[in-house]
Amino acid sequence: MKASTVFALLGSVVLLWLSTGCSLNSQGFTMNSIQADAPIDGQRQSSSLNQLYSWSEQLYNAANDSNRQQAFLLLQRMESLAADGDIRKMGTQAGWQAFERSIQRAIQAMPQKGTSQVWYTETARLKLASDALLRPAAPLWLQYEGVLKDDTQRIRATWAAQAEGRLKAVQATISVYEEHVDRLEVAALMQRDRTDIDGIKAQLLYLERLVRAADAGEVRQDKVPAALASLESASARLFRGAESEDEAALTDATPPGLSIGEQRRGGSQIAELFIAAFVMAVLGFAGWRKYRNGQTQGTSFSDRFK
Q1: Spans of all domains in the chain
Q2: How far apart are CA 6 and CA 167, in angstroms?
Q3: What is the pLDDT of residues 92-147, one digit of tens each?
Q4: What is the pTM of this model?
Q5: The domain at 139-250 falls in which architecture?
Q6: Cα–Cα distance, 136 to 129 (Å, whole number)
Q7: Helix or strand or coil: residue 223?
Q8: Which of 33, 189, 243, 256 has its Cβ near the most Cβ atoms within 10 Å?
Q9: Which fold, 45-137?
């Protein structure tokens, strides 16, 4: 259904509704009474999210500069702010639990020698998660989709090379893939189900075992490309979220010989008919109210034909 048709029909509905004398203020109903506290809560939440992201960015910079003292102070501030009830209305419970674990791992690793890489990774995870909370519509972690695709291609190319030491080379490229997944995990959990992340991890574990078995001649080597295809599918589900699941469900539900586009056009036609029926019902109601008002106010016989 064209957008112009939808707007025209909906516009007609609104005008007819108003013409019947209906009002949102009837029976004591006011939007102000419902939304009175919303702006205050929204402003407080937005301010907290901006503060959290600012601290996460400073933390990331401190990690790059190996400034442990400043990083430790920022981690404590972020830990305190993350416990606030208003800010936790954003994201998911699993995401916040992972966020807290990252803070704790960074705090525990910081005083120890040789752990710079550990708490540096955690600061990157916290920054991506804070960004996902602040900009949920276009978070930075979604850019890792291209990164993981490149990782998959490197694994595929390394396996196909048939060079000496291929197993170690493939295992190294798989480790890079795992590091990238680990880095985006907390941010993804703020916006996706845990099963999406677990699906990728399960495919990676299967791929690692399969590569070792195939290299040892225990299984056919052509199983590795199939496992990589499954890994790509798991990655697509993570980055596309519910969109890919809905598309798959729609494909499964499409009758034979009917494309998804044709099914959607059929659904649009049904929607047009529904809206048109609703408009006719409102027209009938408006006419009935006008008639009743005329009866109640005692309109004269001659006035009805003016």
Answers
A1: 45-137, 139-250
A2: 58
A3: 999 999 999 999 999 999 888 888 888 899 999 999 999 999 999 999 999 999 99
A4: 0.67
A5: Up-down Bundle (1.20)
A6: 10
A7: helix
A8: 189
A9: Four Helix Bundle (Hemerythrin (Met), subunit A) (1.20.120)
